Amino acid sequence: MTWFDRISLFSTLDFATVGVLFAAWFFIGFAIENSSPARPSTSQVMALYRREWMANMAERDNRIFDAQIMNGLRQGTAFFASTTMITIGGIFAMIGNADRFVGLANDLTLSTDPQVVWEIKLFVVLFFVTNAFLKFVWSHRLFGYCAIVMAAVPIDPSDPNAHKRASQAGDINITAARSYNRGLRSVYFAICSLSWLVGSLALLGATVITVAVLWRREFLSQSRATLLQS
202 with 181: CB under 8 angstroms? Predict the structure, then answer.
């Protein structure tokens, strides 16, 4: 079967909904990371708190508390990196045993789609999970860099390098958090893309719900309102 034959197995609605899925993934990420200063996203508000954290850290003699927080952040990214890696293995196992999966899938959806259709649908899920894994691994590494730079901040706040190093640590911390958030969004959309196994309309509905959930948590949540209080 040629690639043209494989593509012909999908309808125009399939292509349209997958296009909406990827467009939504891109634009919600862009909106969150580039929101207006007058209406910042929760992620952008937290970036300000991260800078403030590092500035206050430079004034402290005892930084055990800061080290514990950093360790917690690294454990979180390590957990998600491990989880997504296991998920990638599970998806490959499903693709490798697609003949068993196809019979069950067709029974549940009352369709007669060939095996290649289900494999391509699983590859879309695999794309988002793999992207999430790469983002979590990079975030974990960046939090490690941040910990090292934090350790390089002089204990004496009057040292000319103290606040400079603290600012550098803040920048790396923010970059690590951005990668972590991108990984989480990929997990959201990986779960969303599973709905394509049911059908195109299910995928479209799941995409709308996913975008709505992300938008609410970044721009309309109670936690955001609390963070914005002066």
Answer: no
84 C-beta neighbours (distance < 10 Å), count: 24
Residues 6+ apart with CB under 8 A from 82: none
Q: If you search the block for the tokens 């103290």, which residue do you land on?
A: 162
Q: Which of 31, 54, 35 is nearest to 45 (CA)?
A: 35
Q: Which class for 113: exposed (0-12), middle (13-18), buried (19 or more C-beta within 10 A)?
A: middle
Tell me which residue of 170, 65, 45 sits closest to 162, measured CA to CA: 170
| Tens-digit pLDDT profile for residues 23-59 | 999 999 999 999 998 999 999 999 999 999 999 999 9
How many CB atoms are closer than 10 A to CB 157?
A: 13
Domain residue spans in the chain? 15-25+41-227
Region of 199 (left: φ > 0; alpha: ψ -120 to 50; beta: rest) is left
pLDDT in tens, 170-221: 999 999 999 999 999 999 999 999 999 888 999 999 999 999 999 999 999 9
Distances from the Cα of 103 to the Cα of 108, 168, 169, 200, 227, angstroms: 9, 55, 53, 19, 50
Query: Buried b / exposed e across 188-214, counting CB within 10 Å, b at 16+?
Result: bbbebbbbbbbebebbbebbeebbeeb
- pTM, to two decimals: 0.91
* Closest residue by Cα to residue 120 from 141, 105, 132: 105
Radius of gyration of the CA atoms of the chain, in A? 22
